[in-house]
């Protein structure tokens, strides 16, 4: 998936919370947190970070995408609803559709490497960032500020979101 190209719609079999199709969010900056409820990095970093973005940046539309590519039998919609309740995830969550391939449809469309993954979509509906792994809070905040400050169709120079490394 090429940065700067139109962001493909999420192919959801269901939504937990109100549906938030990307087409309806044009004019807003969107953060999509792609996760699996049994993914340690998602539970410890990706989802808490998405919750903080929702709290700190009310002008950013935050969406979760539950994209299961392993342990299918354990991650049912019933289990997902309980998980979202227990972890107090209040933003809408789409459940990525499977079409017979091991990798769900939206995950393939975006060419994601795994979870957690963070997608940032600008006001024009273009994919502006795709990061796999834990993203630094300060870098994400700076990039969101940049996207929120843009008003025209031409994007500003890119800030690259790199995964955090232990050091």
Describe this structure in words.
- It is a single chain.
- This protein is of the alpha/beta class.
- It has one domain: Glutaredoxin, CATH 3.40.30.10.
- It is 27% helix and 20% strand.
- It has 4 helices and 6 strands; from the N terminus they run ββαβαβαββα.
- The chain has helices at residues 40-56, 77-86, 105-109, 137-149, and strands at 12-16, 29-35, 60-66, 93-96, 117-121, 127-132.
- A 6-stranded mixed beta sheet has the order 1-4-3-2-5-6.
- The mean pLDDT is 90.
Query: What count of helical segments does DSSP give?
Result: 4
Tell me the strand order in the biggest sheet.
Answer: 1-4-3-2-5-6
Distance between the termini: 30 Å
Q: Could you estimate the helical fraction of the residues in percent?
A: 25-40%
**In this structure, how is the largest beta sheet organized?**
6 strands, mixed
Radius of gyration: 15 Å
The overall strand count is 6
**For the residues shown, what is the average pLDDT?**
90
Low-confidence stretches are: none
Strand content: 15-25%
Order of helices and strands: EEHEHEHEEH
CATH homologous superfamily identity: Glutaredoxin
- Structural category is alpha/beta
If you consult CATH, what is the topology?
A: Glutaredoxin
Oligomeric form: single chain
Q: Provide the CATH architecture.
A: 3-Layer(aba) Sandwich
**CATH class annotation:** Alpha Beta
Q: How many domain regions? A: 1
